[in-house]
Amino acid sequence: MGSEKESQNEIILTTKQFSELLDLSPRRIQQLAEEGVLVKVSRGQYKLIESIRNYIAQLQSRASEQEVDYYREKALHEKAKREKAELTLMVMKGELHRSEDVRFVMNDMIAAFRSKMLNIPAKIAPQLVGKKKHSDIQHMLAREVRDALAELSEYDPEAFYAKSSDYVDVNDDEDSEE
Among 22, 18, 16, which residue's Cα sits nearest to residue 39? Predict the structure, then answer.
């Protein structure tokens, strides 16, 4: 019997009244009813107390989801900052090089190699005059090509340090502390 009394005292609002109460459009009120947030009694009529409870619960749920998104975004931001700091440290130590620095140093190395290779004929031609054995000629040419190739294989980190002020010689710091 108690529930019959409560149902008789239940306040019913129209779509227009609910839209004014919640400051929402009538269409949004209908959408909330379709979503089951507002408790529909009949066409265009909704139970006030149950509907308000459901609406508040929905708003609280949405707010907690936004809070979770905030913490997730903050964690992602902190991770990105950490990764950036790690990469910066690697650059400073010379363990990682910027692409423009690599391009500059490699262009210099390749230009020197090209020059050395193009110089082989002028350098070796006078030495080859009078040589008749193919093995002697091959040996001399191979030696010059190996010398030119050796220049390519010589990695010099100082070339990168000279290119950019981002690099820090870690060994200098250790020596100055002693």
Answer: 18
